[in-house]
Design a protein that fits this description.
The protein contains 17 helices and 16 strands. By secondary structure, it is of the alpha/beta class.
């Protein structure tokens, strides 16, 4: 696109549209109460703009839909599997590819084998399902993110980096033999959607090699991460994003990927590994729990769409549009005085609800209050990433809060236009002006793991 233009346009045309049901405030208040004040429990037709997640919510391209028509549904050795395997191997360099129906299935297969009582996992920040799969096995998940991450207004471009010095201290304290893996999540989703530098990935690689610990990438947004490396890390401005991603894959021993993010599809994922013995064990579990080795819970149609999406995602006109359009929302919220995590990530804008709703204590879940207010006011569905998602209870039953009370506005890929984003900005202006009337919430029902998905709430006062 000619650089003299200020406007970054969508590098695609829209060929199909889906209607949105425009609800009233009165209707939304009723819907939210019926959902026990948990937006996960809302029906999709009750939502005007859905920013709950960017996972599986992308609009697929004409080429992906054409690929789905070519899907080979053979049980074993389908042409669609051969195509997907080739694309993944060319991108990652890993020889052993295991298809799964989504990323958390790959996590379960890998971390149930590597985990168990007494095992420890380190990460820049564990994704919610990653932590749940690790802890479900009886292992311990510890986050070690760079101290820069705690500085909300800092413009440091790689606030998703791991704190490698802290990781090294923990390895020395606990003994390398007790570690299941060190996981680098790119981009750092739960840490604010922040990028990870190649230099940091090399430091993690060196630590793992020194101590004989497995190094795994959570690569679900690796294309967006590669774009930030290209823009902000010395020595990469002339490299393609695909080359950058392949270099990062080459540092690790394997990866888990939810294809529902940067592969631009609605369902799918994979586990890819260097080690043949580890892959053989995971393959046995895959066959028992997911499906045969050449489909792993996916249809041939799904595999075709993933193979095409893994190519399309590295189009740099798209990545420029993707990151710039997300930044457009974040920058306008910042101008309104809404506290956002900076720099703005590629897939989402993160609002500091604890700072916005400073009248609410952490045990009244200010993030949950904000997601409820956004829905009531404007029909916007978002997700709390704070003490509902990551809070723990101590031995006395007292809440140990998350480091920050965030709300994530996750932008589905190729779905919404600038007018939708302008509507979001207007909604936040109302939220800002009425922030002191927002109530706190208490949990009335919760599960043991991943409580944000199914917990029930009621307003306080």
């Amino acid at each position: 696109m000619p650089e003299q233009f200020r406007t970054v346009i969508e590098p695609f045309r829209i060929k199909s549209v889906e209607p949105i049901a425009m609800t009233t405030r009165e209707e939304r208040e009723k819907y939210l109460k019926s959902a026990h004040y948990n937006p996960f429990k809302l029906k999709s037709e009750q939502v005007i703009i859905d920013l709950l997640t960017d996972s599986g919510t992308s609009a697929m391209s004409a080429e992906q839909w054409a690929g789905m028509m070519r899907g080979d549904e053979s049980y074993a050795g389908s042409v669609s599997w051969q195509r997907l395997e080739r694309v993944i191997r060319d991108l990652t360099g890993y020889p052993h590819i295991l298809p799964t129906h989504q990323g958390r299935a790959a996590e379960r297969i890998l971390y149930s084998h590597l985990g168990g009582e007494g095992k420890i996992f380190l990460s820049n920040t564990h994704f919610d399902t990653t932590r749940a799969n690790i802890e479900y096995s009886g292992a311990e998940a510890i986050d070690c993110v760079t101290p820069e991450s705690g500085k909300a207004d800092s413009d440091f471009p790689f606030k998703g980096n791991a704190d490698v010095a802290r990781m090294a201290e923990i390895v020395e304290e606990r003994g390398a033999e007790n570690f299941g893996a060190i996981i680098l999540t790119v981009t750092n989703n739960s840490g604010g959607g922040q990028a990870v530098s190649m230099a940091n990935a090399r430091e993690v690689r060196d630590l793992c090699r020194k101590h004989g610990i497995l190094f795994i990438l959570d690569a679900c947004r690796i294309a967006e991460n590669a774009w930030f490396i290209k823009q902000d890390e010395d020595g990469y401005s002339d490299r393609s994003c695909r080359e950058i991603a392949t270099e990062m894959f080459g540092l690790a021993d394997g990866c888990v990927m939810s294809a529902k993010k940067d592969a631009l599809v609605n369902m799918g994922g994979f586990l890819a590994l260097n080690d043949a013995e580890l892959a053989e064990h995971c393959t046995s579990v895959l066959i028992i729990t997911e499906g045969y080795t050449t489909y792993g819970g996916l249809s041939g149609r799904d595999m075709e769409a993933i193979a095409i999406g893994l190519v399309e995602i590295f189009n740099e006109d798209y990545l420029r549009y993707r990151t710039r359009s997300t930044a457009y929302l974040g920058e306008h919220l910042d101008k309104l005085g809404i506290p956002v995590i900076k720099p703005i990530g590629g897939h989402a804008v993160y609002v500091d609800a604890g700072q916005l709703y400073d009248h609410l204590p952490v045990d009244q879940y200010p993030g949950q209050s904000l997601v409820c207010e956004l829905y009531k006011m404007a029909g916007i569905r978002s997700v709390e990433i704070g003490s509902v998602m990551f809070g723990k209870y101590d031995e006395d039953g007292k809440l140990v809060p998350a480091p920050r009370e965030l709300v994530r506005l996750a932008i589905p890929r190729r779905v919404y236009t600038q007018s939708h984003v302008d509507y979001l900005i207007e909604a936040f202006e109302i939220v800002r002006d009425q922030r002191h009337s927002a109530p706190g919430y208490r949990i009335t029902k919760e599960p043991r793991f991943l409580r944000h998905f199914t917990s029930e709430f009621e307003p306080i006062g």
